[in-house]
Amino acid sequence: MPSLHLIETLDHLASTPSGHNISSLPPEQFQWEAPDAHWVLQDDEALRARCSLWWQRTPTLPGKTLGVVGHYAADDAAGAIAILEHAQTELARQGCTYVVGPMDGNTWQRYRLVSKSPSDGKPEPPFFLEPINPESWNQHFLRTGFQPLATYSSALNPNLSQRDARMETVAIRLKHQGVQVRSLDLSKFEDELRRIHTLSCESFQRNFLYTPISVEAFSLQYAKVQPYVRPEFILLAEKATGVLSNDQAPELVGFLFAVPDWLAAQRGEALTTLIVKTVAVKPGRAYAGLGSYLVDQVQAIAHQQGYTRAIHALMYDQNPSRNISDRFAEPIRRYTLYGKEL
Asked: How do beta strands 251-260 and 234-239 pair?
């Protein structure tokens, strides 16, 4: 008979068995992402399901006290229903009135489920930094009363030889404003990250379910992917304000993070696809079009290096930044974040 267990220490976590198709939570996630509780459903021999809960330092939704379910995995529907129903009970007991999931604490971490791939044409395999899950996990949430709260998509530009003619006008305007674009300086990686953190917090503060993040946590996230970084695919748009001293950096007003599809390389395929993961621009009309310009620039750089495709990854469907990809890219995957009143 499966039973529920609260995991409170790393030693306890280490004693958790794996399931037939799922593994126990990696200890570094347990430490770094600091859930308020981690629960497992297991029988004598195997892990059946797991999830973490957060009710402190969670994102905000107007009029609701938010709880979060994340670190989710389940081997079968019965185990999934048992642990998700238990999660709802626990969050309600902590005073939460609404639950979202799956989300590993906040939107800076992994969140949402792959919910749909296009039925026509050859399916696109998973790409680097994309969440991977069985589509059946969506039914686990739906069967326990969750409903779609937000949807996202990734889109493929199959032809990097295409350029956006509108960007010529944008380039002229940015030049007149004193904006210059350069690649990331890996020799100053930590300094670059601090500036990118400041801009990201300013740019994303109105995003759905935004939560602040410390510069230390932000830098740790990028440190994890540093071995995979190609600096020519990380663009910084800077504007000099007045006369700068030798140790004074110009203002960072735009940032783009893209990375090769290293999963394709692991499959033995040639590196021909670039993943455009993050675009951040200083708020305000002064920098309208800068995000699109950075995407156009990085795609041109990739094309010069022999890349033929770009995936615009994990875009919030209600975000105006979707316009950046709509011109040349077609959806290849959809994702869903779920929510439920408690």
From this structure: antiparallel
Q: Output the six-digit token pair for 71.
A: 């670190």
Map out the domains of the chain as residue ranges: 3-111, 157-337
Which pLDDT score is estimated for 320?
64
- d(CA 61, CA 340) in angstroms, rounded, equals 12
Q: Tell me, yes or no, if the two domains 3-111 and 157-337 fold the same way.
A: yes
Residues 290-312 have a mean pLDDT of 96
Distance, CA of 176 to CA of 153 (rounded, Å): 35
| DSSP helix/strand/coil, 56 | coil
Paired sense of beta strands 98-101 and 66-74, if any? parallel
From 26, 18, 90, select the one nearest 54 (Cα to Cα). Answer: 90
Distance of CA 18 to the CA centre of its chain: 26
What pTM was estimated for this model as a whole?
A: 0.92
The domain covering 3-111 belongs, at the CATH homologous superfamily level, to: Gcn5-related N-acetyltransferase (GNAT) (3.40.630.30)
Q: How confident is the model at residue 1 (pLDDT cuts 50, 70, 90)?
A: confident
Distances, alpha carbon 50 to alpha carbons 46, 126, 171, 294, in Å: 12, 23, 50, 40
Query: In terms of pLDDT, which residue wins out, 319 or 230?
Result: 230
CATH number of 157-337: 3.40.630.30
Question: What is the C-alpha separation between 245 and 154, in angstroms, rounded?
Answer: 42
